Every structure is written in structure tokens, then in C-alpha cells.
Amino acid sequence: MLELHDVRVAYGNIEVLHRVNIEVKDGEIVTIIGANGAGKTTTLRSTAGLLPKKKGSQILFAGKDITNMNAEKIVAEGMALSPEGRHIFPDLTVQDNLEMGAYLRYKDKEGVARDMKEIFQMFPRLEERRKQLGKTLSGGEQQMLAIARALMSNPKLLMLDEPSTGLAPLVVKEIFQTVKRLNKERGLTVLLVEQNAKMALGVADRGYVLKNGEIVKSDTGINLLNDDSIRAAYLGENVYKEE
After folding, report:
1. Which of 68, 102, 106, 148 could be stapled to 152 by a disulfide with Cβ–Cβ 3.0 to 4.6 Å?
2. Beta partners for 208?
3. C-alpha torsion sign, points 123, 196, 15, 21
4. What is the pLDDT of residues 12-38, one digit of tens each?
5. What letter would DSSP give residue 133?
6. 109-122 vs 94-101: helix axis angle to the nearest 10?
7. Which residues have CB under 8 Å from 93's CB, separation 6+?
8. 3-class secondary structure for 97-111?
């Protein structure tokens, strides 16, 4: 469904992604893990059309070249990004935020109404707070709203950028259960960037390890979770025993 080929991105004269190659197949959950500053968010933002790519980069989505397509057109193609930091509209109500997520579907009023109902079934707390302003929600509720807003575009691929940041462990667990449910029940393909490597690899079919703007390892989620070097570097576990 999604292919990144030799993707290079620079901020000014400083290249921060170096020939990144990633594949996400239809129906998969794929995660990108790595330390702060590794280039994870840059990878998602460049894929979503929010950052320019250097010559030679190529991004294919459902077989179509979207390398230089603008963000709005990429959303229309069926890709949605729930960004790091949530970036909900704080002075709009929950319902208005969700309607903003469906702004490209303004002609499909029945479909939008149907999806709104499904979103409220999936996130009952959002339905309870549908008339509240976004800024009055808790951190976990804002994260749910950010994901729900992305879903309102009816995407084939959902990209999630650091959905667990700043949330309590129980809320994080709930968020990841929702991601798994979306994948299994809707068949939604998910590309997940996450600092919480253990949680991410636990739900992912496959994973990529990004270090200093380069992919240094890829494998199934379970294999990466059980890899001693990954556990030591990203899970905070001392897996090496003294002789």
C-alpha cells in the first residue's frame, strides 16, 4: 500500500533523512521506533506531503506516485495523519473538530453522518463531550479526538505520530487497544511512530528501527521485541549478563 524509496529530507542544508526505505502492506500495522531526533516524525510528515523531499526520493501510495503531491490531495487519496502533539482545534467543539476531519467529504453528507455515529460508538467519551470545546478535554480525550478526526476522512492508511506522549499508562493501553481494534475490525492499515517501543512492537506486524535518519534494522514486531540489542537500546532493559 505504501512504499518509501530512498527518501531524503533536509532542513536547510542539513539532511535529516538519508535514503529511507519503508514498505507498509495492506492490512498491516507497521511501527517505526527510534530515539528522539532519529527522524520518525520527519518520516511521517514527509509522507503526508508536509515536507519537501530531495531529488531521487519516491513515495508510492496504492501504486500512485505521491512524492510531490500536496497534503490535501494526499488526504483525498486515502491517507490521514494524527500528528504529534494532537493539534486539535482547541476553540472548536468536539463535533466541530470531527467535522473538520471530514472537510473533503462535504458532498457525502450521509457517509459523514454514518461515520460520525460510528466514531461516537468507538469513543463514547467523545459523544458525552460532543458540545465541549476541545481545550476542555483531558489529554487522553484530546488524543482520542485527534485519532477520531483523522478517521473522519475515511482513510485507507492511518498514520499515528507518538499517540502515547504525556498520557497515563491506562490511557495508553486504551489507545493501543483502539488501534488494534481499528486494524482487525475495519481492516485499517496503520503506520505508527512511537517512543513507547514495547507497546508499539507489541501490536505491530512489522517494525523499522530508525537511527540518525537511517533505517538500521527491520523485522517482525515480535522478533524486534525479543532482540537483545533493541531491548537494551529502546526498552530500557539490561539484557546482558556478566560472565
Report:
1. 102
2. 32, 218
3. negative
4. 999 999 999 999 999 999 999 999 999
5. B
6. 130
7. 130, 131, 132, 133, 134
8. HHHHHCHHHCCCHHH
The cell for 185 is 475490525
Q: Are 26 and 1 in contact (CB under 8 A)?
A: yes
Which pLDDT score, from 0 to 100, does residue 238 have? Answer: 53
pLDDT of 237 above 70: no
Q: How far apart are CA 95 and CA 99, in angstroms?
A: 6
In this prediction, residue 235 has a pLDDT band, given cuts at 50, 70 and 90, of: confident
Residues in the chain: 243
Contacts of 162 (CB under 8 A, 6+ apart): 40, 41, 84, 85, 193, 194, 195
Question: How crowded is residue 12: how many other Cβ atoms within 10 Å of its Cβ?
Answer: 6
70 within 8 A of 127, measured Cβ to Cβ: no
Q: What is the pLDDT of residue 116?
A: 95
